[in-house]
Amino acid sequence: MPKRKYKIAVIQLNLNDVAENNLKKCISWVKDAAAKGAEVILLPELYSSHYFCQSEDVENFALAEPLYSTSFIAFSELAKELGVVIIVPFFEKRMAGIYHNSAYIIDTDGTEAGLYRKMHIPDDPHFYEKFYFTPGDLGFQAIETKKGTIGTLICWDQWYPEAARITALKGAEVLFYPTAIGWHPKEKEQYGENQYGAWMNVMKGHAVANGVFVAAANRIGLEKYIEGTEGIQFWGASFIAGPQGEILAQASHDQEEILIAEVDLDLQENVRQNWPFFRDRRIDAFGDITKRAID
């Protein structure tokens, strides 16, 4: 019988532009999370470098790695050593000219349980991801691991209820969101509270609407590496929410931290029995959702 309870962790970190340093750092923090009892562990988006999408620069493609190379080898060995599931977000080089913002889901025996490629790609000031990433082509997935059935979505996917819904309908018990989101420093005073609040509220809404646990791992720190710009101040605030949107664990805006919470499938089932949103969906009336606009 699958376990009815298991512990998940999100790791919130400050990351730099040296891949080797980031790999060593993340390995150390994953070990700490496992020692604290975590069984499924999430790292922030694009863990191996600074957030390079602040500019459109072909030299940044050198940060990408082919499938099953450095990151997979290291975290596969670690997952097997610790007996945990690790979600590893990385910059994938699929072939010359085709790159993805991806995440491995590595099982407790070191094998690949799944691979997710970010489906929604933003193009905003200093978040120029469309220059680098081809939209994902593997779809939304619920991935069976030896600890539980989980779904991984990445950052900009956070804003789309359709992504959360499909992943949950496929059986995901937890939606994991590796993330790199922050404030433009000059906008923080005027817009910062609303931006951060919207980010949390939309994911808490996914938890409620789908009766799932939600875990988001963000990075922290001011990443200012382009001359003449103010950079991005990543706002941290990683969190884990339960199936009614209740906050089970919450990180600060500016400290490296590990958050741990328990996934309780009996609680999830009880919530869905009392709030049967899946039962009452009018799927016969939802056809227009596949249109770009209804005009």
Automatic annotation (TrEMBL):
<keyword id="KW-0378">Hydrolase</keyword>
<dbReference type="GO" id="GO:0016787">
    <property type="term" value="F:hydrolase activity"/>
</dbReference>
<protein>
    <submittedName>
        <fullName>Carbon-nitrogen hydrolase</fullName>
    </submittedName>
</protein>
<dbReference type="InterPro" id="IPR003010">
    <property type="entry name" value="C-N_Hydrolase"/>
</dbReference>
<dbReference type="Pfam" id="PF00795">
    <property type="entry name" value="CN_hydrolase"/>
</dbReference>
<dbReference type="InterPro" id="IPR050345">
    <property type="entry name" value="Aliph_Amidase/BUP"/>
</dbReference>
<dbReference type="InterPro" id="IPR036526">
    <property type="entry name" value="C-N_Hydrolase_sf"/>
</dbReference>
<feature type="domain" description="CN hydrolase">
    <location>
        <begin position="6"/>
        <end position="265"/>
    </location>
</feature>
